[in-house]
Amino acid sequence: MNEAPPRPGTAREGRPVLLVLSHLRWDFVFQRPQHLMTRAAADHDVLFFEEPVFEDGATPRLDLSERAAGICLARPVLPHGLREEAQAMALSGLLRGLVAPRAGRPLVTWFYTPMALPYAGNLPAEAVVYDCMDELSAFRGAPPAMLALERELLSRADLVFTGGRSLYEAKRDRHRDVHCLPSSIDARHFGQARQGLPEPEAMRGIPRPRIGFFGVVDERMDLDLVGALAGLRPDWSFVMIGPVVKIDPAGLPRAGNIHWLGARDYRDLPAHLAHWDAGFMPFAMNESTRFISPTKTPEFLAAGLPLVSTPVTDVVRDYGPQGGDPGFVEIARDAPGMAAALEGLLARHAGPWLERVDARLAAGSWDSTWARMDALIREARQRRRAARAPGAGATRAASARVAGAQHV
Q1: Which sequence spans correspond to the domains of the chain?
Q2: I want to staple 329 with a disulfide (CB 3.0 to 4.6 A). Which of 32, 319, 350, 363 is the partner?
């Protein structure tokens, strides 16, 4: 008889517990946290703890549900009007209740946001991980306490991962064990776009050529650039996929050749990309994009779409032209430059470019990224256990005395 699947939040014996403290909601956009945690769930109990939602008169509670790969999604519900200290106390109590059934098993706390530190910082973890995928303090609406809490998190963390080279350079001198592990690629998923998938209904009737973008639409997008580019090329269609957050939708550029399609499920993205002629990444050049390393860059490439981007530092360094190397992504600073670059891409024979793309993408994957992270976490847990072992303090003191004697 097959064993019934565990209920959401049910402990599975013997597996380490990976508690993820996230500012991003699991069901928002499928990106770095989802890619990593679906892989981690193969041999960890993954508890994905979101920021709270608020209801009038609510008694603090956790709404638990299950997601892909058996991940337990924990969504705290709090009443409106709680002060920060009361919120932290309520969330701390909910977290301890979530973790309690797993007492005695190895616990790893994995922070995506320093703002979780007041209610999750004192859990009995064998390892504390800070996966820094963005410079959150530079985003619109960032809490004033963000920088101070990040300093504290860096002082407590055993490991720090960064989602790109610019972030690594910003953090490497602030912690003893920082690793640059950029976002990877599910090449098989996005490679479906090369296989002639049926055209989604939302795409039908949109004239070609189609220039597409997918991702979150927020303060990181240069809306003026999008509008200017659409004005320069009224015979091109600009297809925009993604949720609009933190900015007023009324401020989006509107024109007959700009098509705002809203959010689409991750599973459906290849079918949309299959019917585009090129991609573009119109990122604004401001503080919110200074450290980004867009996951969508290799995803566009895996889909076989030629791509032009504004000069985001990590895109230029990792994918742009370098010396005599033509690179994988065209770089343009303004609407005329982007229009010219796209014209060249639309006219180019893609065969040799695709061969280079596939060779580049074969060098990395989400599987290999997670395997590297998992190995580093295991090492960090071993170091903590060794530090707590009987006699470890005396051994460290003796080592310090020997080291001191050698310098006399």
Answers
A1: 17-180, 187-361
A2: 319
**Beta strands 237-241 and 258-262, pairing class:** parallel
> Rounded to an integer, what distance in angstroms lies between the CA atom of residue 370 and that of residue 376?
10
pTM for the structure as a whole: 0.88
3-class secondary structure per residue, 106-149:
CEEEEECCHHHHHHHCCCCCCEEEEEECCCHHHCCCCCCCHHHH
Q: Answer yes or no: are the C-beta atoms of 274 and 247 closer than 8 Å.
A: no
17-180: CATH homologous superfamily?
Answer: Glycogen Phosphorylase B; (3.40.50.2000)
The Cα 16–Cα 220 span in angstroms is: 37
Confidence check: pLDDT of 296 > 90: yes
Same fold, 17-180 and 187-361: yes
* pLDDT tens-digit map of 214-256: 999 999 999 999 999 999 999 999 999 999 999 999 999 999 9
Distances 187 to 264, 271, 368 between C-alpha atoms, Å: 19, 14, 13
CATH class name, domain 187-361: alpha beta
Nearest to 214 by CA among 197, 224, 202, 196: 202
What would the two tokens of residue 357 be?
A: 């793309």
Between CA 127 and CA 18 the distance in angstroms is 10
Measured over the CA atoms of residue 66, residue 67, residue 69 and residue 71, the dihedral's sign is negative
- The answer to whether 247 and 284 have CB atoms below 8 angstroms apart is no
Residue 377 burial (CB < 10 Å; 0-12/13-18/19+)? buried
Question: How many CB atoms are located within 10 Å of the residue 343 CB?
Answer: 14
Residue with structure tokens 């889909």?
303
- CA–CA gap between residue 60 and residue 375 (Å, rounded): 37
C-alpha distances (whole Å) from 149 to each of 95, 96, 127, 133, 157 are 19, 21, 18, 16, 12
Token pair belonging to 23: 């500012």
- Count of other CB atoms within 10 angstroms of residue 371: 12
